[in-house]
Amino acid sequence: MIERAEPLPTFSASSASDELLPIREVVRLTGVNPVTLRAWERRYGLIQPVRTEGGHRLYSLEDVTTIRDILSWTERGVAVSKVGTLLARNRPAARPDTVAGPTPVAKEVPATSEWLEWQAGLRQALADFDEARLEQLYGQVFSLYPISQVFAEVLLPLWQELMHQTGFGQQSQWLFYDAFLRGRVLQRLQFVRRNAEDCILLGALPGQCRELELLVTGLLLGGDSGAVRVLPLGQPLDELTLLCQSIQPRALVLFAPAPPAASLLLQLNKLALAIDCPLALAGAGAELVAEQLQGSPVANLGSEPRLMLSRLTQFVAGHLDT
């Protein structure tokens, strides 16, 4: 465990998590206009602001996070009508042991305020462009929580938040943060792959994700074995047969954060028949085309990290039906 060189700064995260914002502030934070926010609420039920006695909408910080998630999906071409399914799948389900029993689970599952506190510390380091402090916080959070939780609850939500900020200096903060995370994830990937004898090839469907998302997926799919080799963004699909022939991976996995079009699914089916290793899709896009993948030569690994890793293990062993 990494020792803390100095204590975490104190933030009023718990009070911040209860803060309610007027619609004009939400527009400033997200860039989404009021008409769109109301449509997402009334037509699709994606956000549920509370109302004042005068009928004015007030939004929680959780609502702001949801709005940013909606933006991320729609920017990738996901229809707003399908975003609700993605949001529901990405929200943690209620745990059975939270309903009854004498043993509290607060120590196992940190409260939202705790994640907000870590994000506040990272946000301050980014505002100061303080790489040493950023490195310190990065090491501390990984010493305390599982890797999948750190990315899902702390690092990537802040990364997505900053990506959509438009204020002066915020684009520079995002670029600084993005470069920092990509460098650290690459280091982890190289370290865990050091002793791997064979590998899983991981690529991305064309134009669907940013490099950091692909690298993090590779890290999560690698598990303890680390046997994942991440291909660069822009890898042509029609040349994957050449790579598979030369590298001879145990499997080829393509990351799909958004649902592939019918023409692309047809291309993937042809690719699966042309290579000598099994082919699978991973990510939210794979979940959204699960019905189309049934009975095809392309497997669906899902999008939840533990599920992806479990299905990948079964898939490579030949125990996962496609």
From TrEMBL:
<protein>
    <submittedName>
        <fullName>MerR family transcriptional regulator</fullName>
    </submittedName>
</protein>
<dbReference type="GO" id="GO:0003677">
    <property type="term" value="F:DNA binding"/>
</dbReference>
<dbReference type="InterPro" id="IPR009061">
    <property type="entry name" value="DNA-bd_dom_put_sf"/>
</dbReference>
<keyword id="KW-0805">Transcription regulation</keyword>
<keyword id="KW-0238">DNA-binding</keyword>
<keyword id="KW-0804">Transcription</keyword>
<dbReference type="InterPro" id="IPR047057">
    <property type="entry name" value="MerR_fam"/>
</dbReference>
<feature type="domain" description="HTH merR-type">
    <location>
        <begin position="20"/>
        <end position="89"/>
    </location>
</feature>
<dbReference type="GO" id="GO:0003700">
    <property type="term" value="F:DNA-binding transcription factor activity"/>
</dbReference>
<dbReference type="InterPro" id="IPR000551">
    <property type="entry name" value="MerR-type_HTH_dom"/>
</dbReference>
<dbReference type="Pfam" id="PF13411">
    <property type="entry name" value="MerR_1"/>
</dbReference>
